[in-house]
Amino acid sequence: PGPAVMGENQSRLNTKYSFDNFVIGSSNRFSHAAAVAVAEAPAKAYNPLFIYGSVGLGKTHILNAIGNELKKTDKKVIYLSAERFMYQFVKAIKNKDTQKFKDVFRNADVLILDDIQFISGKEVTQEEFFYTFNSLVENQSQVIVSCDRSPNDLDRIQDRIKSRLSGGLVVDIQPPDIALRLQILKNRCKTEETYFAKEVLISDEILSFIANEFKSSIRDMLGVLNRIIASSRIQNKVPTLQDARLILKDLLSNMQSVVTIEDIQKLVVHYYNLPMADFLSSRRSRHIARPRQVAMYLAKKLTTKSLPEIGRKFTGR
User: Fold this and answer.
1) β-pairing, 77-81 with 49-52?
2) Which residues are 143's β-sheet partners?
């Protein structure tokens, strides 16, 4: 299909994500309020809206919630990842269909782009995004972007793009506190009960255990809860805390020695006495390139990340 069809196909918002089932706490209250304001008054409240935070904290939920609300008003909403945006643009270039691509994206009422950091170092895609962004804002269309870091911390992104992204409202989502994690778990149990029309018999003791042990990512925490619920249903028994520990023993043991790419980068930078900015820059001097290669090697050996994921952490390599 040509890009016109593509634009529609890539806008398949996840209808299960809404403002109604987004659990609000101190860590995400401001970002939620900003998202609601944009959904109520697109291109009037904050344009662009830039939401950033670590993986699994609810950015995708908020983006879909905005899109789903605006869909109700018959707005032309395009929602896709920055990776997909780049793929479709490159495909349009190969097919000599760039005008159709531009017609789709620049005539949207709302463009929602997830994980903008993916276009780091992709100069051609950045050029197209810059002109698409300008065209949309000039036409009073809403632009919403998510990222894993603030605009100023983006590496190998054109300064003019960072300036545009910072020109609206920039909000962050912080890791949830214990109270919010518990509320999210309880809400998920209620959702499961409604969906399956069957009571979820997971004790508060187990929920507290999950909330205390799995702190970094809401997505991972909910995956843990799903595992316990599934085990309970398959075995047709109410799990005890000891049962929960047994079900999660592989995850709990892995958590004892988890190493992140950021940990490796900090250690390598310290060992070689390098500024982090130089280490993550596009410079290829031997005294920088060698430590960078060491860090990428360690990241592949000591983490479960794929090569593309590791590359993105090293400014798109």
Assistant:
1) unpaired
2) 111
What is the model's pTM? 0.75
How far is residue 17's CA from residue 236's CA, in Å, rounded to a whole number?
29
Helix, strand, coil share of the chain (percent; to 5): 60, 10, 35
Q: Are 100 and 133 in contact (CB under 8 A)?
A: no
The span from the CA of 244 to the CA of 228, in Å, is 6
Of 9, 24, 69, 12, the residue nearest 42 (C-alpha): 69
Whole-number Cα distances in Å, 108 to 15, 26, 170, 215, 293: 20, 33, 22, 38, 42
185 HSE (CA, 13 A, CB side):
32
SS3 assignment, position 220: helix
Angle at 59 between CA 129 and CA 44, to 5 degrees: 60
Q: Which of 32-36, 214-218, 223-227 has the lowest mean pLDDT?
A: 214-218
Kindly report the average pLDDT of the chain as a whole number.
Answer: 89
Q: Distance (Å, rounded) from C-alpha 54 to C-alpha 67?
A: 21
What is the residue whose two structure tokens read 């782009």? Answer: 113
**Contact status, residue 142 vs residue 47, Cβ threshold 8 Å:** yes
**Band of pLDDT at residue 2, cut at 50, 70 and 90:** very low
Of residues 216 and 91, more confidence is placed in 91
